[in-house]
Fold:
Amino acid sequence: MIATNEEYEARIKAEKWFHAIDFGNGLKSSGRFAIDITPNWTLLGVLHLLEQMQIEGLRCLDIGAFDGLVSFILKSAGAKDVLATDIFDKKTLRLGRELLELDIDYLPNQALETLPQALPDQKFDLIVMAGVLYHLYSPLDGLANCRRLISNGGMLIIETEVVSGDEPHLFLNSSSDEYPEAFTYWRPTVSGLKDMLKFCCFNVIAEVKTDHRYTVLAQAVRPSDVKEKTRSLEAIHSQVRPVVPSYLDFKAIEQETLLAPVKVKAEIPIYTEIDPKDFSCSFSLQPESNV
Ligand SMILES: C[S@@+](CC[C@H](N)C(=O)[O-])C[C@H]1O[C@@H](n2cnc3c(N)ncnc32)[C@H](O)[C@@H]1O
Structure:
């Protein structure tokens, strides 16, 4: 039997939501932010970039999907397949998927650290990893795992907390009380993030700053196509072999020919700064701001 609007309203209200989602028909989840803050503001860079990409027909992976807003948007925008994964199992994602009647695959209780082994031989055209990098013990391993799961030519959208500074650094969060959060281990500077992406064979296409958060659109390329390499990185890409399981196999990536059909609608500006107060987008699942 199909649930009524009232039944869905009661089920939505009974859950605690991380994402504010406008399900239509007056049904909304509240999300984690107060009413005077732009809903899902940490995801605005992701939404801004997704709006400029051609999602139709893509195979997409949402790492750390939580309630599933990004997965729902990808599928609604015409993605061929969407796989939502998370280290936990969220009832809210299952409820949203049911309500929106979206055909999305869900792989819960699955850490990024072992995701490539859980999805052997699977490659995606577009991976979104928002709000996860700083939760990883090893951010470089996390980005390497994203690279393992993406086709040459595919796109990665990565969103993260960043710390200020021009040097390519990773800041060990437990070294200060600035951001006392038990599940945050490393916060990169912007150049630290971009250099880790280069290391893992990604070229940065566009960057979006939203307050102290940063979103990067990066394209997976062959080691020989990584732009502006240092001699050290050149040596790593040409000499290092996967003698340790977490190492990328640069030689194999170089030989990979599969090209993902990921396109952007128009030239995306290399750098955009978003003020959450002024943000709007065409995705109807993102609630309108009251700010
Ligand atoms: C800050 S939330 C971000 C949720 C969503 N991606 C967004 O940006 O709104 C972090 C999410 O990543 C998940 N997560 C944390 N560590 C993870 C890991 N090692 N592998 C996969 N998911 C992880 C958490 O369970 C949570 O759902």
